[in-house]
Design goal:
By secondary structure, this protein is mainly α. It has a domain of about 150 residues. It is about 70% helix and about 5% strand. It has 17 helices and five strands. The strands form two sheets. The protein has a three-stranded antiparallel sheet with strand order 4-1-5. Strands 2-3 form a two-stranded antiparallel sheet. β2 and β3 form a beta hairpin. The chain is globular, with a radius of gyration of 24 Å.
């Protein structure tokens, strides 16, 4: 049936065009990851990064698809845009103007998106300057300078290059969302992670040849990965269905309503957003600290290395925060209750209006707790085990959650295109469920 579904995709001109457009945009992104930033000794930089595999620099490099290790024009990746989006979302709670824009619907959303773009450029310039200064102080194990000709000319060039690269990635993501298939920003992160998988697999086999890891551990890790993937698929498809009854209404000479349906509440409403946001917040200060050659700064950076208890605790706290925060931003129980009341709907045993909103909010709070525990376990536990087994960092739970989650969302969108045009989907029974 999956083969038939793939064949049906090519029969729909619009869907085929969207898929090809997405693939072309992702190919452009991967080409940009190979274009180096001017003024850097690539060999010295590669030798420097070899010392930091399995650290936050390795995690940042995974999200950028290897662009950071090569210090390409896309070295900052999409993280400045994500950080700017986080800041804008937080400001909508405390800034009345932004809160008003958020209530204005599509036009307000466009304005907030425009502010996010401006913030992305500002953050990219600041991060580009910090990276440029850090690069000037970096040396390879052999003593070679990563930047042979340091100075303000190099700093300005690096700032402009990296900010332009991030702005271009942001534009690519928006184009994919609008004219392609799936969420563009998520697919770009997905492409960066998947692009690193072959290198991680090669590194694992090389470590086996050197005797640094035995075949039994590899088998255990593979089984663990399969189990984590199965758990992700199971939970991401899970719902809490609240029964909704619609009263009968007479409009003219016709009677409407009287039907029973349900309100689906996702166990993990926020999807892959919490680990991405949490990682971006943890990575930036720790990455900059790696470039500052001061003992206490180095010790602070080492304390939040993946696998350590401080990093894990901070990561879990941020995941819980963003699970609740993003759910509150994207799902408003009061609006849902008002819409149900407007059309004569009610939850059996619950009074319409405010009581219904409180009930939905209470249920959503409880299942979000379970979703936050699930996301934390998927992202943190495999990372701790892998750090103990000394396996390449790219096999961590965060990467698997993003890859599987984005793949499920993209398949769900393709499925909806197929079903809308009366084609068979990927599955014989039911449909592929995304997280939205």
């Amino acid at each position: 049936m999956a083969v038939a579904g793939v064949g049906n995709m090519l029969k729909i001109p619009e869907l085929k065009r969207r898929i090809f457009f997405t693939l072309i945009m992702l190919a452009v992104y991967r080409v940009g990851c190979a274009i180096p930033t001017p003024g850097i000794d690539a060999d010295a930089l590669s030798a420097f990064f070899a010392r930091y595999q399995g650290t936050l620099l390795g995690l940042f490099d995974m999200f950028s698809g290897g662009a950071l290790e090569r210090m390409s024009i896309f070295a900052l990746g999409i993280m400045p845009y994500i950080s700017a989006s986080i800041i804008l979302e937080l400001l909508t709670v405390v800034v009345p103007h932004l809160a008003q824009l958020k209530k204005e619907g599509e036009e307000g959303r466009k304005k907030i998106t425009q502010y996010s773009r401006y913030g992305t450029v500002v953050l990219a310039l600041l991060q580009g300057f910090g990276i440029a200064v850090g690069l000037e102080s970096m040396t390879s194990p052999g003593g070679a300078m990563v930047v042979p000709d340091p100075g303000w000319a190099f700093r300005a060039m690096t700032m402009i290059t990296l900010a332009a690269g991030t702005s271009f990635i942001m534009w690519l993501g928006e184009q994919i969302t609008e004219r392609g298939i799936g969420n563009g920003i998520s697919l770009i992160i997905f492409a960066g992670i998947v692009a690193r998988m072959p290198s991680a697999i090669h590194s694992t086999f090389r470590m086996m040849d050197l005797g640094e890891i035995n075949i039994f551990m590899v088998v255990v890790l593979v089984i663990m990965m399969i189990g984590v993937i199965a758990a992700i698929v199971f939970v991401e498809s899970g719902q809490r269905r609240l029964p909704v009854q619609y009263a009968k209404r007479v409009v003219g000479r016709r009677m409407y309503g009287g039907q029973t349906t349900h309100l689906p509440l996702k166990i993990n409403t926020s999807g892959v957003i919490p680990p991405i946001f949490a990682s971006s917040i943890i990575m930036f200060p720790a990455t900059i600290a790696q470039f500052i050659q001061i003992s206490w700064v180095q010790q602070a950076a080492a304390s939040i290395t993946p696998g350590g208890w401080i990093y894990s605790l901070l990561f879990v706290v941020l995941i819980f925060f963003f699970c609740y925060f993003y759910t509150a931003v994207t799902f408003n129980p009061e609006d849902v209750a008002d819409n149900m009341k407007k059309y004569g709907g009610f939850i059996p045993g619950i009074r319409p209006g405010k009581r219904t909103a409180e009930y939905i909010d209470r249920v959503l709070t409880r299942i979000t707790l379970g979703g936050a525990v699930y996301v934390s376990a998927v992202c943190v536990l495999p990372t701790i085990l892998i750090s103990q087994f000394n396996v390449p960092f790219y096999f961590g739970g965060t990467a698997l959650l993003i890859v599987v989650g984005v793949a499920m969302d993209t398949m769900a969108q393709i499925e909806s295109h197929l079903l809308q045009r009366n084609y068979e989907g990927f599955m014989k029974k039911g449909v592929v469920k995304g997280r939205r």
